[in-house]
Amino acid sequence: xxETPTPGxxxxxxxxxxxxxxxxxxxxxxxxxxxxxxxxxxxxxxxHFPGGKTELAVAAIDDVVARMLRGLDALLAxxxxxxxxxxxxxxxxxxxxxxxxxxSGCPLATVALESTPEDPALREALARxxxxxxxxxxxxxxxxxxxxxxxxxxxxxxxxxxxxGLLQAxxxxxxxxINLATQTLLSLLAARGPTxxxxxxxx
Length: 203
Prior knowledge:
By secondary structure, the protein is mainly alpha-helical.
C-alpha cells in the first residue's frame, strides 16, 4: 500500500492561505493565525515567499486556478458537449459550497472584491486567473464549432455566472441563486441548437 506523502511547508502554507481566502478573505486572517494553521514559523514563510502574505496569496490563487482547470479538463475529456461539461463543473462548485454550510466560496471572487489599486500583484494574479478560465472554456467551445468571437463571449458569460452565482449563494445561504442562473444561461445556450465539432480548417 502506497502512503500519501506529507505535504511540505510550502504546500501547507498555500493550503492554509487558500482556505483563508475561501472562508474569510485576504484581510480576514492575521499572519500569526495563518502560520499556526500551516504549522510553519514566520522565517519559513519568508524563505518560500519573500514578498510575504501577498506573494503567498498570489501563489494560492495560481494553485486554485490550476486545480480548477484540471477539474474542468477532466470533465471536458469525458463529456463531449462543452455546455454539459460546464453545467457539471458549476454543479460541482455549488455542491462544494453547500457542503461547507455556504462558508467556503471561490477565493477568486472573494479576493477580487477586497482588492484595491494598492494591490497590483493581487489584481494581476486575479485578472490572469479569470482570463485563463475564460480562454479554456472558449477553446472547448471553439473545438465544438463556435466561432472564436462568440466562444469568447459565451465563456465570459459562463465565468461571470459561476463567480456571481457563488457569491449570491454564499450570502443567501442557499444554492437557489446559482442554480437559477446556471440553468437559465445553459438552457439558453443549449436552445441555440448543436454545433458540429470542428475537424478541419473553416471554409
